[in-house]
Amino acid sequence: MAEVIDGHGGELALAAARAFGVNEMFTLSGGHVFPLYDAAHKTGFPIYDVRHEQTAVFAAEAVAKLQRRPGLAVLTAGPGVTNGISGLTSAFFNASPVLVLGGRAPAFRWGSGSLQEFDHVPLVAPITKYAGTVTDTDNIAGEVRAALTAALTAHRGPAFLDLPLEIVFSTGEAATPGAPAVPVIEADPDEVSRAAGLLAAAARPVIIAGSDVWGGDAIAELRAAAEALQVPVFTNGMGRGALPPSHPLAFAKARRPALNEADVVCVIGTPLDFRLGFGEFGAARVVHIVDAPSQRATHVETAVSPAGDLRRILAAIADHTGDRADHTEWIEGLRTAEDAGKARDAEAMAAETDLIKPARIYGELRKVLAPDAVTIGDGGDFVSYAGRFLEPAQPGTWLDPGPYGCLGTGMGYAMGARVTYPDRQICVLMGDGAAGFSLMDAESLVRQGLPVVMVVGNNGIWGLEKHPMQAMYGYDVAADLQPGLRYDDVVKALGGAGETVEKAAEIGPALERAFAAGVPYLVNVLTDPGDAYPRSSNLA
């Protein structure tokens, strides 16, 4: 006979979440969710609180991304939930298994005008894998289990449950939660074989691997497939670092010639979206390998699109025994282009100019970042340079907002990363525009003893808007910020530390002080407002 647990709604919810490996909650205090705090407090379950609910969801998403298991955010009713919507949406676009438990005005008074009375579910349903209101205390554990199972089932994503006041405060009972049972999607073996055959026989094949390769724990299988068929690999998102930069099949700088000349492009675990030219690769045949049928591209024609567990698909590709072409000359040509690109980058990263070029900041960062450092990008123009100049040495060490492009992830991602890795370097890269979205939560980091380093590229403008608007109209509006603003003084006032850097030669020593400080530390680098990351438009 199954064991039974009893307690109030908060205890039942947390017991179910623990069974899925949830080890902490991120929250902003609210009376509607007190029982969840009570359950955590009585059992030593860590609570991390923030100054804005979006930070709580972003912190939970960072845990979900880095640890490949659910992250938990607890938000109070009404504005607590709506303040977390951007975080939920980012998690949806990033396939991050985040669970948001929301408070809800009491059901027995619904329609009477209780404090923060609002029906959250219709708002969050389009951006979650599972959304519902729990109507009986005895059902809380089962609903949490169902929500988390949905969140972890490919294609992964966030889930939401709200708990009416009288439901979560009441007592009930449920069967003791067992181990999670997450279904595995099996790909069509014929489609997998066709994909392998196309890659093996192509004269000029390319692999592009994205975040789902990391999220699906398929890094080793990706390497095995690339090595077995000798195919060059490019990455984006959390696919970065899947092959270390020194690997003979790892490429980053030769992307343009690779995609211009390839005859087969195999995109694995990432959508054919604006980051990949919407999947338009000239005359190349496109293989799109995804973790679920829902992720197959419908806006371009693909040669084949296997859908299922990425580990199994890539392992099968690695075992391909059919005909294959010799890719040696193709790889050598790309290596020549790669080396030329690295030489150009090295020159840019050593620029001695004052005003400081953003590239120089990344040149100095490369000298001080440890191989296992977690680097977080939260910005537009400034963070675009990070994608070009920083090459993660290990998988699972790069966090950016993903295709939804939501600014304000920085402090939440930093909190989740620090909780995940107490002893690693955690470095947040922010534009001065992005700093305005979440910098107040540096106080949350200070108060809870979570040191991180923040580097702000401060050019006093919204760079991704000012330069294109000037090009389009000959003028710009709503694109200026205060030049030279002392974001380091903001962090100092919140209990942290920091400094402003105006000379290129001062960047390296400032970074060394920041990483040695042991407190949240902001390095505020004044950069050249005329230096814009090269792109035709940010409106694609």
TrEMBL record:
PANTHER family given in the database record: 2-HYDROXYACYL-COA LYASE 2, THIAMINE PYROPHOSPHATE ENZYMES
Family matches, as Pfam families: TPP_enzyme_C, TPP_enzyme_M, TPP_enzyme_N
Organism, as annotated: Paractinoplanes aksuensis
Protein name: Acetolactate synthase
Positions of the Thiamine pyrophosphate enzyme TPP-binding domain: 378-525
Organism taxonomic ancestry: Bacteria, Bacillati, Actinomycetota, Actinomycetes, Micromonosporales
InterPro entries (UniProt xref): DHS-like_NAD/FAD-binding_dom, THDP-binding, Thiamin_PyroP_enz_cen_dom, Thiamin_PyroP_enz_TPP-bd_dom, TPP_enz, TPP_enzyme_TPP-bd
GO molecular function: acetolactate synthase activity
Enzyme class of the recorded protein, top EC level: transferase
